[in-house]
Amino acid sequence: MTELVRNQRMPRMKIGPLVSAGLVLGVGLGGFFDGILLHQILQWHNMLSSVVPPTNLVAMKYNMIWDGLFHAAVWTACGVGIALLFRAGRRSDAVWSGRLLAGSMLAGWGLFNLVEGTIDHFVLGLHHVHPGAGQFAWDVGFVAIAGAGFILLGYAFARSSRARRPKLVSVPAPVPAPAGRPAFTGPRMATITES
Amino acid sequence: VQGDHVVRALVLTAASAACPDCPPVRDARALVLGDTFWTNALWMVLPFIAIALVLWLAHRIVQIYERSTP
Fold first, then answer.
1. Size of interface A-B (CB pairs under 8 A)
2. A33 three-state secondary structure
3. Which of the 8 DSSP states describes residue A14?
4. Which chain A residues are Cβ-neighbours of B15 within 8 angstroms?
5. Are A122 and A140 a contacting pair, CB within 8 Å?
6. Is this prediction's pTM over 0.80?
7. How far is CA A58 from CA A35, A52, A125, B43, in A?
């Protein structure tokens, strides 16, 4: 019943759809990590804590509102990431790899930290990672380790998945339709073997 | 004195947590929606705009690379 087609190259598989989804999801989840851990649990800073320091109740609430708007923005990024992931899952020419997705998400998280850290901490001075003594070192460390470091780590992790891309494919022969029923014309099951 | 601080902090926390329309909240809301609202909003979304630009550029580069390779 099963006809094996050996030594046949897969049609060109694209990593773009999964990488895009992973990057955008990483941006959104990375933003949530920042907001939840640094803004709320540790309370090291808030969105505009260097503009309006949260030293009284009104200023705290002011920063809380801006934190909420920041969370709304990263929630939107997560929504876009899920939509992109769903779209990638429906494409037959998209690579589907957990390692590639995880690496892309880590790189997206790093991209968020790098860009947000550079713009908000250095250019605009809206807030600092850990205000007070040594805040410049904290800001530099954040951008270097949690920014560039995560991007490189994510890239390395995503690249390691490329060695596992399928090269051989065995395609079962189409199943003949039972008498009196129309032939199945949907997508065929394919067993992918790794080289 | 130490205990007094704790009690005051708890009262403050309770007051801030359970007053959807008390004066501090109204003041904070007015401050947020004041003259600086759009400037702050732009500052807040600026990193996201920059990230979107970076991702769009990367996407275009990958597309061009994929088209140019056989």
1. 67
2. helix
3. B
4. 57
5. no
6. no
7. 20, 10, 21, 21
Helix (H, G, I), strand (E, B) or coil at B22: coil
Nearest-CA residue of chain A relative to B50?
A115
Beta carbons within 8 Å of A116's beta carbon, 6+ residues apart: A31, A34, B47
Tokens (6 digits) for A99 = 């390692």
Helix axes B37-68, A57-89, angle to 10 degrees: 20
A64/B contact by beta carbon, under 8 A: yes
Cα–Cα distance for residue pair A71/B43, rounded to 1 Å: 14
pLDDT digits (tens, 9 = 90+) for A3-39: 444 545 556 788 889 999 999 999 999 999 999 999 9
Which residues lie closer than 8 Å to A174 by C-beta, 6 or more apart?
A: A183, A184, A188
The residue type of A73 is A
Query: Alpha-carbon distance A47 to B35, whole Å?
Result: 18
Contact A38, A45 (CB under 8 A): yes
Copy the structure tokens of residue B34. 């004041």
Residue A146 contacts residue A88 (beta carbons within 8 Å): no
Within 8 A by CB and 6+ apart from A52, the residues are A59, A62, A63, B31
A191 strand-pairing partners:
A170
